[in-house]
């Protein structure tokens, strides 16, 4: 995506609530599995759109981070879907390794049954 | 799910930030399409788990609402996945009609290309 296209999208989004972010849902473009959910502020969304690698805003550390910057497991952006009220995006990605810090492919690796069995 | 199981899950979740909510991603159990994203507070998550219909917390109206309460387009809960740090859930649902208030099946009905073409 060109810088101009990315600016148009960023300027159309509704960065909401105290955090000034949009919700970003990462979905595997092939398997359609949901990999993780993160927050993107203006800069993180702009960097995601222009570099083709997912970037997020850490609400706790107050910094931009790129998925894969330490692990090498980048997420390559294949498509971006925008929701009806412009405060959330689905980013379809090709993951270059597990997304979750636990080593699982997805952060959503536990169904409620597995979760309850381990309580 | 029993009330006891639902209470165990709700008590394990990390309701975060100023809103005291978890992020909830609704996914069509058949097509794997992402339908919408919403916020659930303790009560909305508990009601979702015990009634088998999705409930949300409206950050603007400060009320609980059930998907379909006005449209009749309920979302029937088929599975719930919990993320690694317990502050987000994926709810796999069987939608009984379009999810989006625009009449589209999903709130994420615009790829960025369509979005830019309509700016």
From TrEMBL, chains A, B:
Catalytic activity from the UniProt record: 1-(5-phospho-beta-D-ribosyl)-5'-AMP + H2O = 1-(5-phospho-beta-D-ribosyl)-5-[(5-phospho-beta-D-ribosylamino)methylideneamino]imidazole-4-carboxamide
Subcellular location: Cytoplasm
Pfam family, one: PRA-CH
Signal peptide feature range: none
Function: Catalyzes the hydrolysis of the adenine ring of phosphoribosyl-AMP.
Family named by the database record: Belongs to the PRA-CH family.
Lineage: Archaea, Thermoproteota, Thermoprotei, Sulfolobales, Sulfolobaceae
Protein name as it appears in the record: Phosphoribosyl-AMP cyclohydrolase
An example Gene Ontology biological process: L-histidine biosynthetic process
Pathway annotation from the record: Amino-acid biosynthesis; L-histidine biosynthesis; L-histidine from 5-phospho-alpha-D-ribose 1-diphosphate: step 3/9
Cofactors: Zn(2+); Mg(2+)
EC numbers, comma separated: 3.5.4.19
Entry's Gene Ontology cellular component terms: cytoplasm
Superkingdom of the source species: Archaea
Entry's cofactor comment: Binds 1 zinc ion per subunit. Binds 1 Mg(2+) ion per subunit.
UniProt-recorded Gene Ontology molecular function terms: magnesium ion binding; phosphoribosyl-AMP cyclohydrolase activity; phosphoribosyl-ATP diphosphatase activity; zinc ion binding
Quaternary structure, from the entry: Homodimer.
């Amino acid at each position: 995506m060109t810088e101009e296209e990315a600016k148009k999208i960023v300027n159309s989004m509704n960065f909401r609530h105290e955090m000034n972010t949009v919700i970003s849902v990462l979905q595997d473009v092939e398997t359609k599995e949901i990999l993780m959910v993160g927050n993107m502020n203006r800069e993180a969304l702009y960097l995601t759109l222009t570099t083709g690698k997912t970037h997020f805003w850490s609400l706790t550390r107050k910094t931009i981070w790129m998925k894969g910057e330490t692990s090498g497991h980048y997420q390559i952006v294949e498509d971006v879907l925008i929701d009806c009220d412009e405060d959330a995006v689905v980013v379809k990605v090709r993951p270059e390794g597990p997304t979750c810090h636990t080593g699982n492919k997805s952060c959503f690796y536990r169904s409620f049954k597995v979760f309850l069995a381990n309580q």
